[in-house]
Amino acid sequence: MLIACATHSIVAPPYDVLTDAPSAALAELFASSEPDALFQEAINRRMTGDSQGAIDRLAWLEQQGHGSSHVLYELALAHETQEDFSTAIAVYDLLLGRDTSQSVQQDAGFRRALALLGLGSPQLAVEQLLALPGGEVFNNTDRHTFDLGLGVAWMRSNKMGPGMELVLSTLEATADSNSIPWMRAMGWHALAFERLAQAEKIRVDRRPYRRAARNLRARASLIAEAERYLIEVVNLGEPTWILVGMRDLGDAFIHTYEELNNSPVPNRLNPEQSKIYRELMQERSQSVLAKGWKAYDQGLDIAGRFGLQNSRVGLELQSRRNAIPF
Fold first, then answer.
1. Were 46 and a residue from 54, 115, 118, 306 both cysteine, which residue would form a disulfide, CB within 3.0 to 4.6 Å?
2. Which residues form the domain of 309?
3. Residue 138: strand, helix, or coil
Protein backbone atom coordinates (compact mmCIF):
# COMPACT_ATOMS: atom_id res chain seq x y z
CA MET A 1 0.00 0.00 0.00
CA LEU A 2 1.25 3.51 0.87
CA ILE A 3 4.93 4.16 1.58
CA ALA A 4 5.81 6.55 4.40
CA CYS A 5 8.68 8.97 4.62
CA ALA A 6 11.29 7.88 7.16
CA THR A 7 11.50 11.33 8.74
CA HIS A 8 8.62 12.41 10.98
CA SER A 9 7.73 15.53 12.89
CA ILE A 10 7.97 14.80 16.60
CA VAL A 11 4.48 15.29 18.02
CA ALA A 12 4.56 12.69 20.81
CA PRO A 13 7.22 11.55 23.30
CA PRO A 14 8.94 8.23 22.57
CA TYR A 15 6.77 5.25 23.38
CA ASP A 16 7.49 3.51 26.69
CA VAL A 17 5.91 0.07 26.82
CA LEU A 18 5.96 0.15 30.63
CA THR A 19 3.14 2.69 30.56
CA ASP A 20 0.97 -0.02 29.02
CA ALA A 21 2.30 -2.92 31.08
CA PRO A 22 -0.53 -5.14 32.39
CA SER A 23 -1.02 -6.00 36.05
CA ALA A 24 1.05 -8.75 37.62
CA ALA A 25 -1.96 -11.08 37.65
CA LEU A 26 -2.60 -10.55 33.95
CA ALA A 27 1.09 -10.90 33.12
CA GLU A 28 1.14 -14.26 34.90
CA LEU A 29 -1.92 -15.35 32.92
CA PHE A 30 -0.40 -14.20 29.63
CA ALA A 31 2.82 -16.08 30.36
CA SER A 32 0.88 -19.34 30.24
CA SER A 33 -0.36 -18.64 26.71
CA GLU A 34 1.35 -19.15 23.38
CA PRO A 35 2.45 -15.79 21.91
CA ASP A 36 0.64 -16.40 18.63
CA ALA A 37 -2.60 -17.29 20.42
CA LEU A 38 -2.29 -14.21 22.66
CA PHE A 39 -1.72 -12.01 19.62
CA GLN A 40 -4.82 -13.34 17.90
CA GLU A 41 -6.83 -12.86 21.08
CA ALA A 42 -5.66 -9.23 21.20
CA ILE A 43 -6.88 -8.66 17.64
CA ASN A 44 -10.24 -10.23 18.48
CA ARG A 45 -10.61 -8.04 21.56
CA ARG A 46 -9.83 -4.87 19.62
CA MET A 47 -12.32 -5.75 16.91
CA THR A 48 -15.06 -6.43 19.47
CA GLY A 49 -14.56 -3.16 21.33
CA ASP A 50 -12.20 -4.23 24.14
CA SER A 51 -9.31 -1.95 23.23
CA GLN A 52 -7.81 -2.05 26.71
CA GLY A 53 -7.76 -5.84 26.69
CA ALA A 54 -5.95 -5.69 23.37
CA ILE A 55 -3.42 -3.17 24.68
CA ASP A 56 -2.68 -5.30 27.77
CA ARG A 57 -1.85 -8.32 25.64
CA LEU A 58 0.08 -6.51 22.93
CA ALA A 59 2.13 -4.48 25.40
CA TRP A 60 3.03 -7.68 27.27
CA LEU A 61 4.16 -9.30 24.02
CA GLU A 62 6.33 -6.26 23.24
CA GLN A 63 7.72 -6.22 26.77
CA GLN A 64 8.66 -9.91 26.57
CA GLY A 65 10.51 -9.50 23.29
CA HIS A 66 7.72 -10.82 21.07
CA GLY A 67 7.09 -7.34 19.64
CA SER A 68 7.03 -8.05 15.94
CA SER A 69 5.93 -5.38 13.49
CA HIS A 70 2.45 -6.88 13.55
CA VAL A 71 2.32 -6.52 17.33
CA LEU A 72 3.30 -2.85 17.28
CA TYR A 73 0.93 -2.10 14.41
CA GLU A 74 -1.99 -3.65 16.28
CA LEU A 75 -0.94 -1.85 19.46
CA ALA A 76 -1.06 1.49 17.65
CA LEU A 77 -4.47 0.64 16.18
CA ALA A 78 -5.77 -0.22 19.64
CA HIS A 79 -4.69 3.16 20.94
CA GLU A 80 -6.38 4.80 17.95
CA THR A 81 -9.56 2.93 18.84
CA GLN A 82 -9.26 4.37 22.35
CA GLU A 83 -8.85 7.79 20.71
CA ASP A 84 -5.43 8.11 22.34
CA PHE A 85 -3.88 9.48 19.17
CA SER A 86 -0.71 10.77 20.81
CA THR A 87 0.25 7.32 22.04
CA ALA A 88 -0.77 5.78 18.72
CA ILE A 89 1.61 8.15 16.91
CA ALA A 90 4.41 7.28 19.35
CA VAL A 91 3.91 3.58 18.64
CA TYR A 92 3.84 4.19 14.89
CA ASP A 93 7.08 6.15 15.23
CA LEU A 94 8.67 3.24 17.06
CA LEU A 95 7.46 0.83 14.41
CA LEU A 96 8.58 2.97 11.48
CA GLY A 97 12.01 3.41 13.02
CA ARG A 98 12.39 -0.28 13.80
CA ASP A 99 11.16 -1.83 10.56
CA THR A 100 12.02 -0.12 7.27
CA SER A 101 10.47 -2.79 5.06
CA GLN A 102 8.18 -1.44 2.39
CA SER A 103 5.06 -3.21 3.66
CA VAL A 104 5.42 -1.76 7.16
CA GLN A 105 6.30 1.70 5.91
CA GLN A 106 3.22 1.62 3.70
CA ASP A 107 0.51 0.90 6.25
CA ALA A 108 2.04 2.43 9.37
CA GLY A 109 2.93 5.67 7.59
CA PHE A 110 -0.58 6.16 6.31
CA ARG A 111 -2.17 5.26 9.64
CA ARG A 112 0.17 7.76 11.31
CA ALA A 113 -1.25 10.49 9.08
CA LEU A 114 -4.79 9.53 10.10
CA ALA A 115 -3.76 9.61 13.76
CA LEU A 116 -2.40 13.13 13.21
CA LEU A 117 -5.84 14.11 11.91
CA GLY A 118 -7.40 12.61 15.02
CA LEU A 119 -4.95 14.54 17.17
CA GLY A 120 -6.06 17.78 15.51
CA SER A 121 -2.88 18.37 13.52
CA PRO A 122 -4.14 18.43 9.92
CA GLN A 123 -1.17 20.31 8.50
CA LEU A 124 1.21 17.69 9.85
CA ALA A 125 -1.07 15.05 8.36
CA VAL A 126 -0.84 16.80 4.99
CA GLU A 127 2.95 16.85 5.23
CA GLN A 128 3.00 13.15 6.11
CA LEU A 129 0.72 12.29 3.20
CA LEU A 130 2.61 14.42 0.70
CA ALA A 131 5.79 12.57 1.69
CA LEU A 132 4.21 9.40 0.33
CA PRO A 133 5.03 8.48 -3.28
CA GLY A 134 2.22 8.55 -5.81
CA GLY A 135 1.61 7.80 -9.43
CA GLU A 136 2.71 4.43 -10.66
CA VAL A 137 3.02 2.80 -7.22
CA PHE A 138 -0.72 3.18 -6.54
CA ASN A 139 -3.37 0.72 -7.58
CA ASN A 140 -6.94 2.06 -7.66
CA THR A 141 -7.66 1.27 -4.02
CA ASP A 142 -4.44 2.93 -2.87
CA ARG A 143 -5.15 5.96 -5.03
CA HIS A 144 -8.65 6.41 -3.66
CA THR A 145 -7.51 5.81 -0.08
CA PHE A 146 -4.72 8.36 -0.41
CA ASP A 147 -6.94 10.93 -2.14
CA LEU A 148 -9.63 10.74 0.53
CA GLY A 149 -7.05 11.10 3.29
CA LEU A 150 -5.36 14.04 1.59
CA GLY A 151 -8.66 15.69 0.68
CA VAL A 152 -9.93 15.55 4.25
CA ALA A 153 -6.59 16.76 5.61
CA TRP A 154 -6.68 19.71 3.20
CA MET A 155 -10.23 20.55 4.25
CA ARG A 156 -9.26 20.56 7.91
CA SER A 157 -6.18 22.70 7.24
CA ASN A 158 -8.28 25.40 5.53
CA LYS A 159 -7.55 24.39 1.95
CA MET A 160 -11.25 23.93 1.51
CA GLY A 161 -11.53 24.29 -2.27
CA PRO A 162 -9.00 21.66 -3.37
CA GLY A 163 -9.89 19.46 -0.42
CA MET A 164 -13.60 19.34 -1.19
CA GLU A 165 -12.93 18.84 -4.88
CA LEU A 166 -10.65 15.87 -4.19
CA VAL A 167 -13.06 14.29 -1.69
CA LEU A 168 -16.09 14.72 -3.94
CA SER A 169 -14.35 13.37 -7.04
CA THR A 170 -13.03 10.35 -5.12
CA LEU A 171 -16.41 9.58 -3.59
CA GLU A 172 -17.92 9.75 -7.06
CA ALA A 173 -15.23 7.45 -8.44
CA THR A 174 -15.93 4.87 -5.70
CA ALA A 175 -19.71 5.19 -5.71
CA ASP A 176 -20.26 1.73 -7.21
CA SER A 177 -17.57 0.08 -5.12
CA ASN A 178 -17.73 -1.79 -1.83
CA SER A 179 -14.08 -1.02 -1.09
CA ILE A 180 -12.63 1.30 1.61
CA PRO A 181 -15.96 1.96 3.40
CA TRP A 182 -14.23 3.49 6.46
CA MET A 183 -12.36 6.01 4.32
CA ARG A 184 -15.46 6.81 2.27
CA ALA A 185 -17.44 7.38 5.48
CA MET A 186 -14.65 9.69 6.61
CA GLY A 187 -15.00 11.65 3.38
CA TRP A 188 -18.78 11.99 3.63
CA HIS A 189 -18.47 13.09 7.26
CA ALA A 190 -15.91 15.74 6.31
CA LEU A 191 -18.37 17.17 3.77
CA ALA A 192 -21.17 17.14 6.35
CA PHE A 193 -18.97 18.82 8.95
CA GLU A 194 -18.03 21.55 6.48
CA ARG A 195 -21.71 22.29 5.81
CA LEU A 196 -22.42 22.41 9.53
CA ALA A 197 -19.46 24.75 10.07
CA GLN A 198 -20.82 27.08 7.39
CA ALA A 199 -24.26 26.93 9.01
CA GLU A 200 -22.75 27.92 12.35
CA LYS A 201 -21.42 31.14 10.81
CA ILE A 202 -24.90 32.29 9.81
CA ARG A 203 -26.25 33.85 12.99
CA VAL A 204 -29.97 33.84 13.69
CA ASP A 205 -29.83 35.97 16.84
CA ARG A 206 -29.46 39.27 15.03
CA ARG A 207 -31.60 42.26 14.18
CA PRO A 208 -33.49 43.10 12.09
CA TYR A 209 -36.06 40.32 12.34
CA ARG A 210 -36.31 39.88 8.57
CA ARG A 211 -32.57 39.28 8.31
CA ALA A 212 -32.74 36.77 11.17
CA ALA A 213 -35.56 34.90 9.42
CA ARG A 214 -33.60 34.82 6.16
CA ASN A 215 -30.51 33.62 7.99
CA LEU A 216 -32.52 30.88 9.67
CA ARG A 217 -33.67 29.57 6.31
CA ALA A 218 -30.10 29.62 5.01
CA ARG A 219 -28.83 27.80 8.08
CA ALA A 220 -31.60 25.20 7.84
CA SER A 221 -30.69 24.58 4.21
CA LEU A 222 -27.04 23.92 5.08
CA ILE A 223 -27.98 21.60 7.93
CA ALA A 224 -30.30 19.71 5.60
CA GLU A 225 -27.44 19.30 3.14
CA ALA A 226 -25.23 17.99 5.93
CA GLU A 227 -27.96 15.48 6.84
CA ARG A 228 -27.91 14.15 3.27
CA TYR A 229 -24.18 13.60 3.52
CA LEU A 230 -24.63 11.85 6.87
CA ILE A 231 -27.17 9.49 5.33
CA GLU A 232 -24.31 8.29 3.13
CA VAL A 233 -22.22 7.72 6.27
CA VAL A 234 -25.03 5.67 7.82
CA ASN A 235 -25.46 3.65 4.64
CA LEU A 236 -21.79 2.68 4.81
CA GLY A 237 -22.37 1.24 8.29
CA GLU A 238 -19.17 2.60 9.83
CA PRO A 239 -20.01 3.23 13.52
CA THR A 240 -17.02 5.48 14.22
CA TRP A 241 -18.17 8.09 11.72
CA ILE A 242 -21.88 7.58 12.39
CA LEU A 243 -21.38 8.49 16.05
CA VAL A 244 -19.27 11.54 15.26
CA GLY A 245 -21.78 12.63 12.62
CA MET A 246 -24.77 12.30 14.95
CA ARG A 247 -22.93 14.28 17.61
CA ASP A 248 -22.08 17.06 15.18
CA LEU A 249 -25.63 17.16 13.79
CA GLY A 250 -27.11 17.28 17.28
CA ASP A 251 -24.75 20.11 18.19
CA ALA A 252 -25.89 22.07 15.14
CA PHE A 253 -29.54 21.80 16.18
CA ILE A 254 -28.81 22.69 19.80
CA HIS A 255 -26.77 25.75 18.81
CA THR A 256 -29.61 26.87 16.56
CA TYR A 257 -32.09 26.38 19.40
CA GLU A 258 -29.94 28.43 21.77
CA GLU A 259 -29.52 31.26 19.29
CA LEU A 260 -33.23 31.38 18.57
CA ASN A 261 -33.98 31.75 22.25
CA ASN A 262 -31.29 34.38 22.72
CA SER A 263 -32.32 36.42 19.69
CA PRO A 264 -33.15 40.07 20.46
CA VAL A 265 -36.76 41.11 20.59
CA PRO A 266 -37.83 43.42 17.73
CA ASN A 267 -37.53 47.08 18.78
CA ARG A 268 -41.14 47.89 18.00
CA LEU A 269 -42.57 45.61 20.71
CA ASN A 270 -43.65 46.85 24.14
CA PRO A 271 -42.80 44.86 27.30
CA GLU A 272 -45.96 42.74 27.17
CA GLN A 273 -45.51 42.00 23.49
CA SER A 274 -41.86 41.21 24.13
CA LYS A 275 -42.86 38.59 26.70
CA ILE A 276 -45.29 37.02 24.25
CA TYR A 277 -42.58 37.06 21.57
CA ARG A 278 -40.20 35.21 23.89
CA GLU A 279 -42.82 32.61 24.72
CA LEU A 280 -43.65 32.06 21.05
CA MET A 281 -39.98 31.75 20.17
CA GLN A 282 -39.50 29.22 22.94
CA GLU A 283 -42.47 27.21 21.73
CA ARG A 284 -41.48 27.26 18.07
CA SER A 285 -37.88 26.34 18.79
CA GLN A 286 -38.93 23.17 20.60
CA SER A 287 -38.97 21.27 17.32
CA VAL A 288 -35.31 22.23 16.78
CA LEU A 289 -34.47 21.08 20.30
CA ALA A 290 -36.26 17.79 19.63
CA LYS A 291 -34.17 17.25 16.50
CA GLY A 292 -31.01 17.73 18.53
CA TRP A 293 -32.19 15.20 21.12
CA LYS A 294 -33.09 12.73 18.37
CA ALA A 295 -29.68 13.02 16.71
CA TYR A 296 -27.91 12.31 20.02
CA ASP A 297 -30.29 9.45 20.79
CA GLN A 298 -29.80 7.83 17.39
CA GLY A 299 -26.06 8.07 17.85
CA LEU A 300 -26.34 6.39 21.25
CA ASP A 301 -28.44 3.62 19.74
CA ILE A 302 -25.69 2.92 17.21
CA ALA A 303 -23.07 3.12 19.97
CA GLY A 304 -24.94 0.49 21.97
CA ARG A 305 -25.17 -1.86 19.01
CA PHE A 306 -21.41 -1.77 18.51
CA GLY A 307 -20.36 -1.64 22.15
CA LEU A 308 -19.10 1.95 21.82
CA GLN A 309 -21.26 3.60 24.47
CA ASN A 310 -18.21 4.14 26.69
CA SER A 311 -16.04 5.58 23.93
CA ARG A 312 -15.26 9.29 24.06
CA VAL A 313 -17.92 10.13 21.47
CA GLY A 314 -20.38 7.71 23.07
CA LEU A 315 -20.02 9.47 26.41
CA GLU A 316 -20.33 12.87 24.73
CA LEU A 317 -23.59 11.77 23.08
CA GLN A 318 -24.96 10.56 26.40
CA SER A 319 -23.98 13.74 28.21
CA ARG A 320 -25.48 15.99 25.55
CA ARG A 321 -28.72 14.03 25.28
CA ASN A 322 -29.20 13.87 29.06
CA ALA A 323 -28.68 17.63 29.34
CA ILE A 324 -31.78 18.28 27.20
CA PRO A 325 -34.83 18.78 29.46
CA PHE A 326 -37.16 16.23 27.86
1. 54
2. 180-326
3. coil
